[in-house]
Amino acid sequence: MTRSLIVEADGGSRGNPGIAAGGALVIDGETGEVLAELGVYVGVATNNVAEYHGMLEGLRRAYHLDPGAAVHVRLDSQLLVEQMSGRWKIKHPDLQHLARQVRELIGHRHVTFEWVPRADNARADALANRAMDLRSSFGL
What we know:
single chain, alpha/beta, Nucleotidyltransferase, domain 5, 5-stranded mixed β-sheet, 38% helix
């Protein structure tokens, strides 16, 4: 049976662009246990770039834990959900580069993307804010 993992990811910038970071949790889809928490400091970037970094690092950790897992990614960014689902074009070169990295990482694995209200993504947001406060990555 394929293991189910959930990645909750977010990103933010203080200014747009400004000091930026992403955050992510990896959660066991069956038990709800948090398996990993991480923050990725990006430096000066836009909010969207930071969100992509949070998602990318969350996926990397999920596949490190179980390379064959089915992953469900939850984001409060409709832009990322629509772009990664292939419904919206990615016009910005920085986002195109990050989306390519995500797609290469995913390969032929089973991944789904879901938009969630911001309030439901508070844990990932807090991890992104912690990385911005520290101006450093953690948990990677």
